[in-house]
Design brief:
Length: 122
């Protein structure tokens, strides 16, 4: 009787990959804070994770694609067309980092549980 690792780990690997992709997008926003005309981007984490849950995980295996990008609407538009708001981006980046750590912790707990079950300790 074998263990189906995909079922055992659930969506945690997909969530971790998505959090990593989102970190790249948010870091790009922060790096382009002073770039005229730069449009702040984000991704719809929930929608992408729902795709993975439905078995439509193929987009998770490929690099982040521009058609999956959402654009953030600024509360105060700048004159140069840049939509990056430093405080908003820093808050989103920090929250994403915390969520990444949470996903990593859940994944680690799952793996420890599987190791204990394999060794007969659980």
């Amino acid at each position: 009787m074998g263990i189906n690792l995909g079922q055992a780990l659930g969506l945690h690997p997909a969530a971790l990959k998505l959090r990593g992709e989102r970190a790249q997008v948010l870091a790009s926003n922060l790096a382009n804070e002073n770039t005229p005309g730069y449009q702040a981007r984000d991704l719809d984490f929930r929608a992408r994770l729902d795709e993975a849950a439905l078995g439509l995980a193929e987009p998770l295996l490929q690099p982040f694609e521009s058609d999956a990008v959402l654009y953030r609407v600024p509360s105060r538009p700048s004159q140069d067309g840049n939509t990056v708001e430093l405080g908003v981006e820093q808050a989103e980046f920090a929250q994403n980092a915390l969520d990444f750590q949470t996903s990593l912790t859940f994944l680690n707990m799952k793996l420890k549980g599987l190791a204990a079950a394999i060794q007969g300790n659980g």
